[in-house]
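Writing this down once: the sequence line spells out the residues, with the fold written below as integer tokens. I am pasting one below:
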Amino acid sequence: MNKKVICLIIATAVVSSITTLGGTFLYSKAQAQNVTKGSGGCPISEILKAQENGSVYDVMSPIGESTIKQIQQAPRLSTLNGKTIAIVGGSFMANVTHPEIKRLILAHYPDAKVILLSEIGSAGPYPAPGVKRQQKDEFERKLKDMKVDAVISGNGGCGLCTPKEEGSCITAEYLGIPSVMIAAPGFVEQAKTTALNAGVPVQRVAEYPGAFSSHTHDELIKNTQEVLWKQIVDGLTKPITQQEINEATKSLKNDDKEVAFSGTLEEIQQYFENQGWTDGLPIAPPTQDVVNEFFKYTPYSANSVIGEIPPSYRKVTAQHVATVGAMAGCPPEYMPILIAYTKAMMNGDFRKTLSSTHAWTPFLWINGPIARQLGIDAGQGEISSPNNKKIGRFIDLAMINLGGYDVKKNRMGTFGYLSSWAMAEDEEALSRIGWQPYHVQKGYNINDNTITAASSLNWGNNLTPATSDADKILELMAWDAVEKEQFALGGGTPFVYRTIFITEYVARDLARKYKDKNSLENALIQTARRPLDERAYANFYANPGSSFDGRNYSLEQHKSKIAQEENAQTTTTPKWLSWTGKASMQTVPVMTSGKTAIIVTGDANRNKVLTVPGGGMTTVKIELPNNWDSLMRDLGYKPLNNYYVKISAVNIPQVQPTAQQPTQQRTYTNSNSQANRQKRPTAEQYRKIREERGQSSNNQYRNSNTNTQRRSGSGQYGNSSTNNQRRPSAEQYRKMRQQSGLPVRNNQN
């Protein structure tokens, strides 16, 4: 292995973890401290020497065993003649392929009987162990009552519809009824993996040649005849071989011994990649000594079962969580956060979109004093801060190892996925504004610690409200919500989950009118509407499932359908569409109650809103051991209660419009910045607000850069320089304006 590659491994995996791995990995404790404090150089030469000498490390497995028992499948049919065959599923042009399959069956096997979806229904996604689902139970009953001999289901053409249609095949196989799933090329493995994770070892799949919705009616018919038909017949009639069973189930075998592998750094990396235990980026080898450190910081023992994590339903213990945490380079004291996220992975609302082709990327945010204690950044650049990135890497590796998500098998993003990330809500900012943190909205106490797991379909592309007028900011946010739907152009479901990130000063300006986040959300729901014509056009021509046949079903008919289903109303034209010249128009809502999280976070010195459409969310309490404070004191952290905050009502001064600058508009002039400043509380007013609440008027988190200072809580948010350090002083600012030829303001304070 060349030194350049080894340096890459060190830079991305080892150096970020050396304080954790200390005397148990590559460095002595003193060397690790020297590197993190900046008082010594990284001993790369020593690492290279260790590698060249072939140092061997014993590492642990991050994989738990599957809890799903595999069924013994019934023999396949000898012929389709005289059999009752159900053709079910309604995804991806099934309205074209399925009638043609029926015609082919009856043409080749005239004594067969064919039942379609409209007569028997379908099972939907196969439920998790122990979960009863009425749709599946009803489909099972009809299979028995109608004496069905074989099931054909489809069409699998996306990451969510494939498991949905595969559920009918799984239900049939559990009843001893042979089945075939129809899927596009990229979704064949997903269908097989979904069946395997439900206990069906061999799922026969008929592979369609291409994207269903991109093919014409004639192409669909031709491909059904020439490509699908033979595969369907073979799948239902050819016996399942032992070789098929062995090949399908080999991934379920996991030798859960204490040492999974022994080897050099290069060999460990290659072994983990070959096993599918990493994402291709370097890992920090999870030696037993390193993994054992994690159990100091959790009430769970190594063998404690955290849960059976979907979609693979592996039995995940605290040891598996710690192993993945070590691989990600997390310090052991992050263990309570890692356990909480692992529990969140079991929540159906959160996880059900994570396999989709639309590429929902999981992320989390933290509430409570533990975020400030551990230095989880809530300020500028937060998701790129080292502490946050380690948790993001844990999420990525947990998806692979704890949940069993596998790109190209059951994680089907068309263009792949972003790396996951971690954030924290800025509760100190909320204390100045008077709004409640997210976890308090969900019923937790202000100083409880929680993680909220969510997912995102985009990142960046921020909104920058260039006004302090709460009404205008609301209109801009509503417009942004209309533009930021779950699918591009809003062609999919009408109501979607969104997380809205707001920086402090924008939140403060909104708080002048909206006393809490709930009142802001309600106002957004009322304001965020889109034209019916636009919605119907997007859903007709950019539908994420099947395409519509314009010959038999017109756009105008679809518009009438959307109007009825989505409660279209004649409303005042949205402000951002006033250019149309219409006083009113038919519109539909794009937001509904309970699907929006509003989080105050990010660079307080920037006027930003980021609307992130995504999937469902779940909040989990972080559990700490009883001796947490003493453990943290040993590591150099301050006690947890040093980071408590108190949220109380804050009377933010209302600002009256001036004759020169109405609050309804902000123009880009040199004088405007002075007028805008007059609308905001002055520094003196802010000091008075804080003094009335019994808070110090000085920023107590200052002058921080080193790890030791971060751990002691001396830096703002625990791991970044203060806002004052980033901003020029008043004198520097005046000089900058003079040098630029701009007017110099008098001191407004």
